[in-house]
Amino acid sequence: MTALTNDLIKLTADAERNADRDGRFRQKLHLMPPAGWLNDPNGLCQFKGIYHAFFQYSPFNAEGGVKMWGHYTSHDMIQWEYQGVMLYPDQPFDCSGVYSGCAFIENGTMYLYYTGNVKLEDSDNYDYINSGRESNTVLVTSTDGAYFGRKRLLMKNSDYPADLTLHVRDPKVWKEDGTYYMLQGARTKEDVGQAVIFRSEDRIHWTLYSRVETKKKFGYMWECPDYFEVDGVKILSASVQGLEGDEWKDRNVYQSGYFTVEGDILGEYSLSDYRLWDYGFDYYAPQSFDTEDGRRIQIGWMGMPDCKEYTNRTVEDGWQHCFTFPREVFVKDGIVRQRPVRELEERKILLEETKNILKTKKCTVYEAVVSNISDDQFHAVLAEGLTAEYENNRFKIEFKNDKVSCGRKCRFAEMDHVTEVRILSDESSAEIFVNDGEYVFSTRYYPEEPGICIEAEGAEIRLYEISE
Ligand code: FRU
Description:
Layout: H1 3-17, E1 36-47, E2 50-58, E3 68-74, E4 80-87, E5 98-106, E6 109-119, E7 133-142, E8 152-155, E9 164-176, E10 179-188, E11 193-200, E12 207-212, E13 221-230, E14 233-241, E15 255-263, E16 269-271, E17 275-276, E18 284-290, E19 296-301, E20 319-320, E21 327-332, E22 335-340, E23 348-360, E24 366-371, E25 379-382, E26 386-391, E27 394-399, H2 402-405, E28 410-414, E29 421-426, E30 429-434, E31 439-444, E32 452-466
Parallel strand pairs: 1-20
Antiparallel strand pairs: 1-2, 2-3, 3-4, 5-6, 6-7, 7-8, 9-10, 10-11, 11-12, 13-14, 14-15, 15-16, 15-17, 18-19, 19-21, 21-22, 23-32, 24-29, 24-32, 25-26, 25-32, 26-27, 27-28, 29-30, 30-31
Bound molecules: beta-D-fructofuranose.
Protein backbone atom coordinates (compact mmCIF):
# COMPACT_ATOMS: atom_id res chain seq x y z
CA MET A 1 0.00 0.00 0.00
CA THR A 2 1.40 3.42 -0.93
CA ALA A 3 1.49 6.43 1.38
CA LEU A 4 -1.08 8.02 -0.93
CA THR A 5 -3.45 5.07 -0.46
CA ASN A 6 -3.05 5.37 3.30
CA ASP A 7 -3.89 9.04 3.26
CA LEU A 8 -6.88 8.52 0.97
CA ILE A 9 -8.22 5.82 3.28
CA LYS A 10 -7.95 8.15 6.24
CA LEU A 11 -9.44 11.16 4.45
CA THR A 12 -12.35 9.08 3.14
CA ALA A 13 -13.08 7.73 6.62
CA ASP A 14 -13.05 11.29 7.99
CA ALA A 15 -15.43 12.51 5.27
CA GLU A 16 -17.79 9.60 5.88
CA ARG A 17 -17.68 10.06 9.66
CA ASN A 18 -18.58 13.72 9.32
CA ALA A 19 -21.39 13.11 6.82
CA ASP A 20 -24.94 14.03 7.80
CA ARG A 21 -26.76 10.73 8.26
CA ASP A 22 -30.26 11.96 8.99
CA GLY A 23 -30.73 14.89 6.65
CA ARG A 24 -33.83 15.54 4.57
CA PHE A 25 -34.12 13.97 1.13
CA ARG A 26 -31.93 11.00 2.02
CA GLN A 27 -33.09 8.01 0.03
CA LYS A 28 -34.53 4.86 1.61
CA LEU A 29 -34.51 2.49 -1.37
CA HIS A 30 -31.95 4.00 -3.68
CA LEU A 31 -28.19 3.75 -3.33
CA MET A 32 -26.61 7.09 -2.53
CA PRO A 33 -23.06 8.07 -1.53
CA PRO A 34 -22.11 7.81 2.16
CA ALA A 35 -20.63 11.32 1.71
CA GLY A 36 -20.07 13.63 -1.24
CA TRP A 37 -20.75 12.69 -4.84
CA LEU A 38 -21.83 9.53 -6.72
CA ASN A 39 -22.11 8.92 -10.46
CA ASP A 40 -22.00 5.79 -12.64
CA PRO A 41 -22.73 2.27 -11.41
CA ASN A 42 -19.64 0.09 -11.90
CA GLY A 43 -18.76 -3.59 -11.60
CA LEU A 44 -22.38 -4.68 -11.14
CA CYS A 45 -22.64 -8.43 -10.64
CA GLN A 46 -23.95 -11.28 -8.58
CA PHE A 47 -20.94 -13.15 -7.25
CA LYS A 48 -21.26 -16.28 -5.11
CA GLY A 49 -24.87 -15.33 -4.40
CA ILE A 50 -24.17 -11.76 -3.29
CA TYR A 51 -25.02 -8.68 -5.34
CA HIS A 52 -22.20 -6.17 -5.75
CA ALA A 53 -22.67 -2.56 -6.82
CA PHE A 54 -19.61 -0.36 -7.07
CA PHE A 55 -20.02 3.32 -7.82
CA GLN A 56 -18.08 6.32 -9.05
CA TYR A 57 -17.43 8.11 -5.79
CA SER A 58 -15.94 11.47 -4.75
CA PRO A 59 -16.35 11.52 -0.97
CA PHE A 60 -14.66 14.89 -0.42
CA ASN A 61 -16.91 17.08 -2.52
CA ALA A 62 -20.65 16.91 -3.21
CA GLU A 63 -20.01 18.57 -6.56
CA GLY A 64 -17.53 15.97 -7.75
CA GLY A 65 -13.78 15.50 -7.65
CA VAL A 66 -11.28 12.71 -8.11
CA LYS A 67 -13.15 9.42 -8.66
CA MET A 68 -12.73 6.15 -6.79
CA TRP A 69 -14.91 3.04 -6.55
CA GLY A 70 -17.19 2.83 -3.53
CA HIS A 71 -18.71 -0.58 -2.86
CA TYR A 72 -22.10 -1.85 -1.71
CA THR A 73 -23.26 -5.45 -1.32
CA SER A 74 -26.71 -6.94 -0.91
CA HIS A 75 -28.62 -10.20 -0.65
CA ASP A 76 -31.77 -8.91 -2.30
CA MET A 77 -30.98 -5.64 -4.17
CA ILE A 78 -33.16 -3.79 -1.63
CA GLN A 79 -31.05 -3.61 1.49
CA TRP A 80 -27.46 -2.73 0.76
CA GLU A 81 -24.47 -2.69 3.04
CA TYR A 82 -21.67 -0.23 2.48
CA GLN A 83 -18.27 -1.97 2.27
CA GLY A 84 -16.03 1.07 1.92
CA VAL A 85 -13.88 2.16 -1.01
CA MET A 86 -12.44 -0.73 -3.02
CA LEU A 87 -10.33 1.11 -5.58
CA TYR A 88 -8.47 4.34 -4.85
CA PRO A 89 -6.75 6.48 -7.50
CA ASP A 90 -3.30 5.66 -6.20
CA GLN A 91 -1.25 4.48 -9.20
CA PRO A 92 0.50 6.43 -11.97
CA PHE A 93 -2.00 4.99 -14.48
CA ASP A 94 -5.18 5.97 -12.57
CA CYS A 95 -4.06 8.96 -10.51
CA SER A 96 -6.77 11.33 -11.86
CA GLY A 97 -9.56 8.87 -11.24
CA VAL A 98 -10.58 5.24 -11.16
CA TYR A 99 -13.13 5.66 -13.92
CA SER A 100 -16.00 3.39 -14.90
CA GLY A 101 -15.81 -0.29 -15.69
CA CYS A 102 -17.39 -3.69 -15.27
CA ALA A 103 -17.22 -6.99 -13.45
CA PHE A 104 -16.74 -10.26 -15.29
CA ILE A 105 -17.25 -13.46 -13.31
CA GLU A 106 -15.62 -16.78 -14.14
CA ASN A 107 -14.29 -19.80 -12.23
CA GLY A 108 -15.02 -18.31 -8.84
CA THR A 109 -13.14 -15.09 -9.61
CA MET A 110 -14.38 -11.55 -9.99
CA TYR A 111 -12.46 -9.67 -12.69
CA LEU A 112 -12.91 -5.91 -12.50
CA TYR A 113 -11.91 -3.98 -15.61
CA TYR A 114 -11.86 -0.20 -15.42
CA THR A 115 -10.41 2.92 -17.00
CA GLY A 116 -7.49 4.54 -15.23
CA ASN A 117 -7.85 8.23 -15.95
CA VAL A 118 -4.81 10.50 -16.07
CA LYS A 119 -5.13 14.22 -16.70
CA LEU A 120 -1.87 16.08 -17.08
CA GLU A 121 -1.35 19.54 -15.67
CA ASP A 122 -0.94 22.31 -18.30
CA SER A 123 -4.29 23.47 -19.54
CA ASP A 124 -2.63 26.16 -21.73
CA ASN A 125 -1.08 23.53 -23.94
CA TYR A 126 -3.51 20.63 -23.80
CA ASP A 127 -7.01 20.31 -25.24
CA TYR A 128 -7.67 17.14 -23.19
CA ILE A 129 -9.15 15.50 -26.27
CA ASN A 130 -6.07 14.78 -28.35
CA SER A 131 -3.52 15.78 -25.76
CA GLY A 132 -3.06 15.98 -22.03
CA ARG A 133 -4.81 12.82 -20.90
CA GLU A 134 -4.51 9.04 -20.74
CA SER A 135 -7.21 6.37 -20.70
CA ASN A 136 -5.67 3.18 -19.39
CA THR A 137 -7.40 -0.19 -19.21
CA VAL A 138 -6.78 -1.80 -15.84
CA LEU A 139 -7.67 -5.15 -14.24
CA VAL A 140 -8.00 -6.20 -10.61
CA THR A 141 -9.31 -9.53 -9.38
CA SER A 142 -10.86 -10.97 -6.28
CA THR A 143 -11.88 -14.47 -5.21
CA ASP A 144 -14.01 -13.36 -2.28
CA GLY A 145 -15.46 -10.00 -3.39
CA ALA A 146 -13.85 -8.31 -0.40
CA TYR A 147 -10.12 -8.34 -1.01
CA PHE A 148 -8.82 -7.16 -4.38
CA GLY A 149 -5.29 -7.90 -5.54
CA ARG A 150 -2.75 -5.76 -7.34
CA LYS A 151 -3.87 -3.49 -10.17
CA ARG A 152 -2.59 -4.60 -13.54
CA LEU A 153 -2.27 -2.19 -16.46
CA LEU A 154 -3.55 -3.99 -19.58
CA MET A 155 -3.77 -1.36 -22.32
CA LYS A 156 -2.80 2.27 -22.92
CA ASN A 157 -3.89 4.77 -25.57
CA SER A 158 -1.10 3.57 -27.88
CA ASP A 159 -2.83 0.15 -27.91
CA TYR A 160 -6.04 1.66 -29.25
CA PRO A 161 -6.67 2.55 -32.93
CA ALA A 162 -4.62 5.59 -34.01
CA ASP A 163 -7.63 7.48 -35.39
CA LEU A 164 -9.21 7.71 -31.92
CA THR A 165 -8.81 10.68 -29.62
CA LEU A 166 -7.62 10.04 -26.09
CA HIS A 167 -11.27 9.52 -25.04
CA VAL A 168 -11.54 5.73 -24.89
CA ARG A 169 -13.10 4.28 -21.75
CA ASP A 170 -15.57 2.24 -19.72
CA PRO A 171 -14.73 -1.41 -20.59
CA LYS A 172 -17.51 -4.00 -20.58
CA VAL A 173 -16.43 -7.65 -20.95
CA TRP A 174 -18.35 -10.75 -22.01
CA LYS A 175 -17.53 -14.23 -23.31
CA GLU A 176 -18.79 -15.77 -26.51
CA ASP A 177 -17.80 -19.15 -27.99
CA GLY A 178 -14.79 -19.48 -25.71
CA THR A 179 -13.36 -16.03 -26.51
CA TYR A 180 -13.48 -12.90 -24.36
CA TYR A 181 -14.65 -9.61 -25.84
CA MET A 182 -14.36 -6.12 -24.43
CA LEU A 183 -16.39 -3.13 -25.54
CA GLN A 184 -15.08 0.37 -24.89
CA GLY A 185 -16.68 3.75 -25.63
CA ALA A 186 -14.72 6.09 -27.90
CA ARG A 187 -14.51 9.43 -29.69
CA THR A 188 -12.68 9.49 -33.00
CA LYS A 189 -10.45 12.33 -34.16
CA GLU A 190 -13.28 13.24 -36.55
CA ASP A 191 -15.56 13.61 -33.51
CA VAL A 192 -17.61 10.51 -34.18
CA GLY A 193 -18.92 8.44 -31.29
CA GLN A 194 -18.45 4.69 -31.52
CA ALA A 195 -17.67 1.54 -29.57
CA VAL A 196 -14.47 -0.43 -30.02
CA ILE A 197 -14.30 -4.18 -29.51
CA PHE A 198 -11.15 -5.93 -28.29
CA ARG A 199 -10.71 -9.70 -28.01
CA SER A 200 -8.68 -11.94 -25.76
CA GLU A 201 -8.03 -15.64 -25.19
CA ASP A 202 -6.95 -15.25 -21.57
CA ARG A 203 -8.78 -12.11 -20.24
CA ILE A 204 -5.41 -10.37 -19.95
CA HIS A 205 -3.89 -9.84 -23.40
CA TRP A 206 -6.27 -7.91 -25.61
CA THR A 207 -6.08 -7.03 -29.29
CA LEU A 208 -8.30 -4.84 -31.42
CA TYR A 209 -11.14 -6.83 -32.96
CA SER A 210 -13.60 -4.40 -34.60
CA ARG A 211 -15.49 -1.12 -34.33
CA VAL A 212 -19.20 -0.63 -33.87
CA GLU A 213 -20.79 2.49 -35.24
CA THR A 214 -23.93 3.77 -36.88
CA LYS A 215 -24.13 4.39 -40.64
CA LYS A 216 -24.50 8.12 -40.06
CA LYS A 217 -22.58 9.91 -37.31
CA PHE A 218 -24.44 9.60 -34.01
CA GLY A 219 -22.94 11.98 -31.44
CA TYR A 220 -19.24 12.65 -30.83
CA MET A 221 -18.68 10.30 -27.88
CA TRP A 222 -20.23 7.07 -26.65
CA GLU A 223 -19.77 6.51 -22.94
CA CYS A 224 -20.38 3.37 -20.91
CA PRO A 225 -21.30 0.99 -23.76
CA ASP A 226 -22.96 -2.29 -22.83
CA TYR A 227 -23.88 -5.32 -24.91
CA PHE A 228 -26.22 -8.15 -23.92
CA GLU A 229 -28.99 -10.39 -25.13
CA VAL A 230 -32.33 -10.57 -23.41
CA ASP A 231 -35.29 -12.76 -24.42
CA GLY A 232 -33.64 -13.30 -27.82
CA VAL A 233 -33.06 -9.60 -28.51
CA LYS A 234 -29.49 -8.30 -28.80
CA ILE A 235 -29.01 -4.89 -27.27
CA LEU A 236 -26.18 -2.40 -27.64
CA SER A 237 -26.52 0.32 -25.02
CA ALA A 238 -24.57 3.59 -25.08
CA SER A 239 -24.66 6.92 -23.30
CA VAL A 240 -24.17 9.38 -26.11
CA GLN A 241 -22.79 12.92 -26.05
CA GLY A 242 -23.26 15.44 -28.83
CA LEU A 243 -26.69 14.64 -30.29
CA GLU A 244 -28.13 17.71 -31.93
CA GLY A 245 -31.14 18.81 -33.92
CA ASP A 246 -34.89 18.96 -33.42
CA GLU A 247 -35.34 15.48 -32.07
CA TRP A 248 -32.98 16.21 -29.17
CA LYS A 249 -33.93 19.82 -28.52
CA ASP A 250 -36.24 19.30 -25.52
CA ARG A 251 -34.22 16.49 -24.06
CA ASN A 252 -31.33 16.10 -21.66
CA VAL A 253 -27.86 17.41 -22.45
CA TYR A 254 -26.65 13.81 -23.02
CA GLN A 255 -28.71 10.74 -23.88
CA SER A 256 -28.80 7.21 -22.65
CA GLY A 257 -30.35 4.60 -24.87
CA TYR A 258 -29.84 1.52 -26.99
CA PHE A 259 -29.86 0.04 -30.46
CA THR A 260 -31.17 -3.44 -31.09
CA VAL A 261 -28.70 -5.47 -33.12
CA GLU A 262 -29.72 -7.59 -36.10
CA GLY A 263 -27.11 -10.15 -37.12
CA ASP A 264 -23.83 -10.60 -35.28
CA ILE A 265 -22.18 -7.70 -33.50
CA LEU A 266 -18.89 -9.56 -33.98
CA GLY A 267 -19.48 -9.91 -37.72
CA GLU A 268 -22.17 -8.62 -40.06
CA TYR A 269 -24.74 -6.58 -38.19
CA SER A 270 -27.17 -3.72 -38.51
CA LEU A 271 -28.34 -1.39 -35.76
CA SER A 272 -31.91 -0.24 -35.22
CA ASP A 273 -32.82 3.36 -34.50
CA TYR A 274 -31.70 4.54 -31.09
CA ARG A 275 -34.32 4.38 -28.36
CA LEU A 276 -33.99 6.04 -24.96
CA TRP A 277 -33.88 3.89 -21.86
CA ASP A 278 -35.58 6.62 -19.93
CA TYR A 279 -37.47 9.79 -20.86
CA GLY A 280 -37.04 11.64 -17.55
CA PHE A 281 -34.49 14.19 -16.40
CA ASP A 282 -32.10 12.02 -14.47
CA TYR A 283 -30.78 8.93 -16.14
CA TYR A 284 -27.31 8.19 -17.43
CA ALA A 285 -24.53 5.61 -17.76
CA PRO A 286 -26.59 2.48 -17.01
CA GLN A 287 -24.89 -0.87 -16.68
CA SER A 288 -26.40 -4.35 -16.65
CA PHE A 289 -25.61 -7.83 -15.38
CA ASP A 290 -27.08 -11.33 -15.24
CA THR A 291 -28.41 -12.68 -11.99
CA GLU A 292 -27.77 -16.29 -11.05
CA ASP A 293 -31.48 -16.98 -11.72
CA GLY A 294 -31.12 -15.68 -15.27
CA ARG A 295 -32.54 -12.15 -15.12
CA ARG A 296 -30.94 -9.15 -16.81
CA ILE A 297 -30.75 -6.31 -14.30
CA GLN A 298 -29.92 -2.75 -15.18
CA ILE A 299 -29.04 0.10 -12.84
CA GLY A 300 -28.47 3.66 -14.00
CA TRP A 301 -27.08 6.78 -12.43
CA MET A 302 -30.11 8.90 -11.51
CA GLY A 303 -28.28 12.05 -12.50
CA MET A 304 -26.97 13.87 -15.55
CA PRO A 305 -23.44 15.15 -16.22
CA ASP A 306 -22.73 18.74 -17.31
CA CYS A 307 -26.31 19.75 -16.67
CA LYS A 308 -26.67 23.50 -16.17
CA GLU A 309 -30.47 23.59 -16.28
CA TYR A 310 -31.10 22.18 -12.84
CA THR A 311 -29.43 21.45 -9.53
CA ASN A 312 -29.93 19.09 -6.62
CA ARG A 313 -30.93 20.44 -3.23
CA THR A 314 -28.88 17.84 -1.40
CA VAL A 315 -25.60 19.57 -2.33
CA GLU A 316 -26.25 21.88 0.65
CA ASP A 317 -26.35 18.76 2.81
CA GLY A 318 -23.00 17.46 1.59
CA TRP A 319 -24.11 14.77 -0.84
CA GLN A 320 -25.42 14.46 -4.37
CA HIS A 321 -26.97 11.87 -6.68
CA CYS A 322 -28.13 8.28 -6.38
CA PHE A 323 -28.70 5.17 -8.49
CA THR A 324 -32.00 4.19 -9.99
CA PHE A 325 -33.82 1.33 -8.33
CA PRO A 326 -32.56 -1.91 -9.99
CA ARG A 327 -34.69 -2.81 -13.01
CA GLU A 328 -35.33 -6.07 -14.83
CA VAL A 329 -34.95 -5.60 -18.56
CA PHE A 330 -37.30 -7.88 -20.49
CA VAL A 331 -38.96 -8.18 -23.87
CA LYS A 332 -42.71 -8.59 -24.34
CA ASP A 333 -44.58 -8.30 -27.64
CA GLY A 334 -41.27 -7.51 -29.29
CA ILE A 335 -40.75 -4.43 -27.12
CA VAL A 336 -37.83 -3.91 -24.73
CA ARG A 337 -39.21 -2.98 -21.30
CA GLN A 338 -38.12 -2.35 -17.74
CA ARG A 339 -39.71 -3.00 -14.36
CA PRO A 340 -38.49 -2.70 -10.76
CA VAL A 341 -36.84 -5.96 -9.64
CA ARG A 342 -39.41 -8.45 -8.31
CA GLU A 343 -37.72 -8.49 -4.87
CA LEU A 344 -39.65 -5.26 -4.28
CA GLU A 345 -42.93 -7.21 -4.12
CA GLU A 346 -41.97 -8.68 -0.76
CA ARG A 347 -41.56 -5.22 0.73
CA LYS A 348 -44.90 -3.86 -0.38
CA ILE A 349 -47.74 -3.34 2.07
CA LEU A 350 -51.11 -2.51 0.55
CA LEU A 351 -52.37 0.79 1.95
CA GLU A 352 -55.30 1.53 -0.30
CA GLU A 353 -57.15 -0.10 -3.16
CA THR A 354 -59.64 2.00 -5.05
CA LYS A 355 -61.04 3.02 -8.45
CA ASN A 356 -61.01 6.28 -10.41
CA ILE A 357 -59.27 8.52 -7.91
CA LEU A 358 -56.76 8.24 -5.11
CA LYS A 359 -55.74 11.08 -2.88
CA THR A 360 -53.51 10.73 0.14
CA LYS A 361 -50.83 12.49 2.09
CA LYS A 362 -49.74 9.35 3.87
CA CYS A 363 -46.37 8.30 2.49
CA THR A 364 -43.22 9.32 0.65
CA VAL A 365 -41.75 5.89 -0.06
CA TYR A 366 -44.39 4.05 -2.02
CA GLU A 367 -45.45 2.35 -5.19
CA ALA A 368 -48.69 3.38 -6.85
CA VAL A 369 -50.02 0.99 -9.49
CA VAL A 370 -52.71 2.23 -11.85
CA SER A 371 -54.07 -0.51 -14.11
CA ASN A 372 -56.79 -0.97 -16.71
CA ILE A 373 -56.72 2.71 -17.56
CA SER A 374 -59.64 3.46 -19.84
CA ASP A 375 -59.87 6.04 -22.60
CA ASP A 376 -56.29 7.12 -21.93
CA GLN A 377 -57.37 9.08 -18.89
CA PHE A 378 -54.47 9.58 -16.56
CA HIS A 379 -53.44 12.55 -14.45
CA ALA A 380 -51.32 12.48 -11.30
CA VAL A 381 -49.73 15.04 -9.01
CA LEU A 382 -46.91 13.93 -6.74
CA ALA A 383 -46.17 15.96 -3.62
CA GLU A 384 -46.43 19.69 -4.20
CA GLY A 385 -46.06 19.87 -7.91
CA LEU A 386 -44.72 17.06 -10.06
CA THR A 387 -47.47 16.22 -12.53
CA ALA A 388 -47.56 13.16 -14.74
CA GLU A 389 -50.25 13.09 -17.37
CA TYR A 390 -51.35 11.80 -20.72
CA GLU A 391 -52.74 14.19 -23.28
CA ASN A 392 -52.77 14.37 -27.07
CA ASN A 393 -50.71 11.24 -27.60
CA ARG A 394 -48.06 12.43 -25.22
CA PHE A 395 -47.15 11.26 -21.76
CA LYS A 396 -45.39 14.03 -19.92
CA ILE A 397 -43.96 14.81 -16.54
CA GLU A 398 -43.92 18.47 -15.62
CA PHE A 399 -43.00 20.44 -12.55
CA LYS A 400 -45.31 23.21 -11.35
CA ASN A 401 -43.20 24.23 -8.40
CA ASP A 402 -39.57 25.25 -8.66
CA LYS A 403 -38.74 24.42 -5.07
CA VAL A 404 -39.63 20.81 -5.78
CA SER A 405 -37.99 20.70 -9.21
CA CYS A 406 -34.89 22.85 -8.63
CA GLY A 407 -34.96 23.96 -12.24
CA ARG A 408 -36.39 20.90 -13.96
CA LYS A 409 -39.37 21.66 -16.19
CA CYS A 410 -40.87 19.14 -18.60
CA ARG A 411 -40.03 15.83 -20.31
CA PHE A 412 -42.27 13.72 -22.53
CA ALA A 413 -42.62 10.74 -24.85
CA GLU A 414 -45.08 10.28 -27.69
CA MET A 415 -47.26 7.19 -27.46
CA ASP A 416 -50.62 6.09 -28.83
CA HIS A 417 -52.23 4.98 -25.58
CA VAL A 418 -51.72 4.79 -21.88
CA THR A 419 -52.95 1.59 -20.27
CA GLU A 420 -50.92 1.11 -17.10
CA VAL A 421 -48.70 3.30 -14.90
CA ARG A 422 -46.47 2.35 -11.97
CA ILE A 423 -44.94 5.08 -9.84
CA LEU A 424 -42.05 4.26 -7.53
CA SER A 425 -41.34 7.16 -5.22
CA ASP A 426 -38.57 7.54 -2.66
CA GLU A 427 -37.77 10.54 -0.43
CA SER A 428 -36.30 12.52 -3.35
CA SER A 429 -36.93 10.58 -6.55
CA ALA A 430 -39.72 9.28 -8.72
CA GLU A 431 -39.51 6.59 -11.39
CA ILE A 432 -42.63 6.27 -13.51
CA PHE A 433 -43.07 3.10 -15.58
CA VAL A 434 -45.68 3.44 -18.34
CA ASN A 435 -47.44 0.69 -20.31
CA ASP A 436 -45.80 -2.29 -18.69
CA GLY A 437 -42.40 -0.64 -18.65
CA GLU A 438 -42.32 0.35 -22.32
CA TYR A 439 -41.45 3.91 -21.27
CA VAL A 440 -39.82 5.08 -18.06
CA PHE A 441 -39.47 8.60 -16.67
CA SER A 442 -36.98 9.09 -13.82
CA THR A 443 -36.39 12.26 -11.93
CA ARG A 444 -35.07 13.56 -8.66
CA TYR A 445 -37.48 15.87 -6.83
CA TYR A 446 -37.54 17.58 -3.47
CA PRO A 447 -40.95 17.43 -1.79
CA GLU A 448 -41.32 19.10 1.60
CA GLU A 449 -44.75 17.56 2.16
CA PRO A 450 -45.64 14.05 1.01
CA GLY A 451 -48.75 13.43 -1.03
CA ILE A 452 -50.13 11.91 -4.18
CA CYS A 453 -53.31 12.51 -6.15
CA ILE A 454 -54.16 10.20 -9.06
CA GLU A 455 -57.17 10.68 -11.31
CA ALA A 456 -57.83 7.94 -13.83
CA GLU A 457 -61.56 7.47 -14.45
CA GLY A 458 -62.38 3.75 -14.67
CA ALA A 459 -58.93 2.52 -13.64
CA GLU A 460 -57.95 0.41 -10.64
CA ILE A 461 -55.51 2.11 -8.32
CA ARG A 462 -53.43 0.46 -5.63
CA LEU A 463 -51.10 2.22 -3.26
CA TYR A 464 -48.38 0.32 -1.43
CA GLU A 465 -46.09 1.50 1.26
CA ILE A 466 -42.60 0.04 0.99
CA SER A 467 -41.15 -1.28 4.19
CA GLU A 468 -37.46 -1.00 4.91
C1 FRU B 1 -20.02 8.74 -17.50
C2 FRU B 1 -18.53 8.95 -17.27
C3 FRU B 1 -17.70 7.78 -17.80
C4 FRU B 1 -16.45 7.88 -16.97
C5 FRU B 1 -17.00 8.29 -15.63
C6 FRU B 1 -16.10 9.18 -14.82
O1 FRU B 1 -20.81 9.44 -16.60
O2 FRU B 1 -18.09 10.17 -17.84
O3 FRU B 1 -17.46 7.84 -19.18
O4 FRU B 1 -15.75 6.68 -16.92
O5 FRU B 1 -18.22 8.97 -15.88
O6 FRU B 1 -16.67 9.43 -13.56
